[in-house]
TrEMBL record:
PANTHER family hit by this protein: TRNA MODIFICATION GTPASE GTPBP3 (PTHR42714), TRNA MODIFICATION GTPASE GTPBP3, MITOCHONDRIAL (PTHR42714:SF2)
Description of how the protein assembles with itself and partners: Homodimer. Heterotetramer of two MnmE and two MnmG subunits.
Keywords from the UniProt entry: Cytoplasm, GTP-binding, Hydrolase, Magnesium, Metal-binding, Nucleotide-binding, Potassium, tRNA processing
Main location: cytoplasm
Natural source organism: Rubellimicrobium thermophilum DSM 16684
Binding site for (6S)-5-formyl-5,6,7,8-tetrahydrofolate: R36, E93, R133, K441
Residue sites binding Mg(2+) per the record: S242, T263
Protein name: tRNA modification GTPase MnmE
Family annotation (Gene3D superfamilies): P-loop containing nucleotide triphosphate hydrolases, Probable tRNA modification gtpase trme, domain 1, tRNA modification GTPase MnmE domain 2
Residues where GTP binds: 238-243, 257-263, 282-285
Family: Belongs to the TRAFAC class TrmE-Era-EngA-EngB-Septin-like GTPase superfamily. TrmE GTPase family.
Chain segments carrying region Disordered: 1-24
Required cofactor names: K(+)
Length: 441
């Protein structure tokens, strides 16, 4: 069983010996530029530039000068005492003027001081983790927040960042430990028959497994929300698929011609619909053909369309109608020209396009509304693994198997929960996350 100790670099109480600094705002022109320092020499290093003492925890307006007395910038300085900062370490922030030259001059003067070095990407957040100010789940939320481009992504990331997952996992863990304690009691007091414990163990395991399964499903959807939903446009050659894609894109992204079989490969186009990232797929028209290249295009189109979250089918009056499931939107093609039954669309005139966009957004947001939190594929995997082990324990308990067997399955479930919140096996995950952070975060 994991002993609960944190991996080497995240153990508390051994503060890194060095002080790091980095610009916290993007390089280039801006009104204000922020330079952050964290570590035992953070305040002292800024005091050297400010030419005198700074409050231990507060703010001050100072002229910053280099070693020769040359004035570099006028800056607002924020200081955070050790234990009362984002990283948990002594921290200072220089809020100076946002010109590249002023920032370069301050960074230069800091870099010439002893015991200071430029931070690696994500190193501030890493130190916050090392000092217990953030946990893995919240760091993942922070990472997603930093990368959020759409409103839906921001909302989800914020939920994780605020610790929703950590709280949920702690609750699962407690109930799982209850079940584990019951199996231990059965093992320890094997002579005294305690058969009433088995139904209770099975009930607990089944309950937690059900919740984990539901969250894992949500996490998989959340991953789609981050990566983007795929919406495929399908239909016979010359139906007007590429014309519709171009209309939706507002530009000539795909080739259009009156030659059937114009689109041969899958064309992908990213856009944002109602705050949701969507990748539109224009596919090759589906028909029987002797042209081997076109046939390959058709096979690809079929595979991608089958895997897509939604399919928009363009149908011709005399053509076959596709089987309609919850992920299918069927529209009459070239409605400006061809009459017929049902809702129609025309990529040429724009008729029905607004209604289609609304319908796509409606169907996709109905799914994302079901999400508990903005989680990743990694979370989904850990939760599914935990659920599977719990289902095993549940079945063993129901079958009246030896409690040792259920106990072993419970240990595996606990390990999966530990991985979920980063109690174990975090190095790889953290390495990957921090690499994506920018310098100064
Ligand atoms: N200028 C600036 N803006 C920023 C940050 C920052 O570090 N600096 N942040 C960085 O991500 C975010 C805000 N998050 C923060 C979280 C905690 C603390 C902090 O120092 N907390 C202390 C209390 C400080 C006080 O009240 O004076 C603490 O919790 O003990 C600062 C920022 C976004 N905006
Ligand atoms: N009147 C009318 N013509 C259209 C419409 N959509 C497409 N067309 C015309 O139909 C022809 C085929 O259009 P495409 O968009 O290339 O059709 P496609 O479905 O992408 O065809 P493939 O890539 O060959 O499968 C072109 O000449 C278009 O101008 C429409 O809504 N109304
Ligand atoms: Mg086409």
């Amino acid at each position: 069983m994991p002993d609960g100790t944190a991996p080497e670099e995240v153990r508390r109480g051994d503060p890194p010996a060095d002080t790091i600094f980095a610009p916290a705002t993007p390089p280039g022109r801006s009104g204000i530029a922020v330079i952050r320092l964290s570590g035992p020499r953070a305040r002292e290093a800024v005091e050297a530039l400010a030419g005198g003492p700074l409050p231990v925890h507060g703010r001050a307006l100072r002229i910053l000068r280099d070693e020769t007395g040359e004035p570099l910038d006028e800056a607002l300085i924020l200081t955070f005492a050790e234990g009362r900062s984002f990283t948990g370490e002594e921290t200072a922030e220089i809020q100076g003027h946002g010109s590249p030259a002023a920032v370069a001059a301050i960074l230069g003067a800091l870099g010439r001081q002893r015991g200071l070095r430029l931070a690696a990407p994500g190193e501030f957040a890493q130190r916050a983790l090392a000092h217990g100010r953030l946990d893995l789940a919240r760091i993942e939320g922070l990472s997603a927040l930093l990368e959020a481009e759409t409103e839906a992504q921001r909302r989800q990331a914020m939920r994780v960042f605020q610790g929703a997952l950590g709280k949920r996992a702690e609750d699962w863990r407690e109930r799982l430990l209850q079940a584990a304690a019951l199996t231990e009691a059965m093992i320890d007091f094997a002579e005294e028959d305690i058969p009433e414990a088995l139904p209770e163990i099975a009930r607990l395991c089944g309950e937690i497994a059900g919740e984990l399964e539901a969250e894992a499903r949500g996490a998989r959807l959340a991953e789609r929300l981050r990566e983007g939903f795929e919406v495929a446009i399908v239909g016979p050659p010359n139906a007007g698929k590429s014309t519709l894609l171009n209309r939706l894109a507002g530009r000539e992204a795909a080739l259009v011609s009156d030659v059937a079989g114009t689109t041969r490969d899958v064309i992908e186009l990213r856009m944002v619909l109602d705050g949701m990232p969507v990748t539109l797929l224009d596919t090759a028209g589906l028909r029987e053909t002797a042209d081997s290249v076109e046939r390959m295009g058709g096979e690809r189109a079929r595979a991608r369309a089958a895997a897509a979250d939604l399919r928009v089918h363009l149908v011709l009056p005399d053509g076959p109608r596709p089987a309609e499931g919850p992920d299918d939107i069927v529209l009459r093609a070239q409605a400006d020209r061809l009459a017929g039954e049902g809702p129609g669309i025309s990529g040429l005139t724009g008729e029905g396009v607004e209604a289609l966009v609304a319908e796509i957004a409606r169907r996709l947001s109905a799914r994302t509304a079901a999400l508990g939190a903005g989680l990743t594929a990694r979370h989904a995997h850990a939760m599914a693994e935990g659920a599977a082990a719990l289902r095993e324990a549940e079945a063993l308990a129901r079958a009246g198997a030896a409690p040792e067997l259920a106990g072993e399955a419970l240990r595996r479930a606990l390990a999966a929960l530990d991985a979920l919140v980063g109690r174990v096996g975090t190095e790889d995950i953290l390495g990957a996350i921090f690499q994506r952070f920018c310098i100064g975060k």
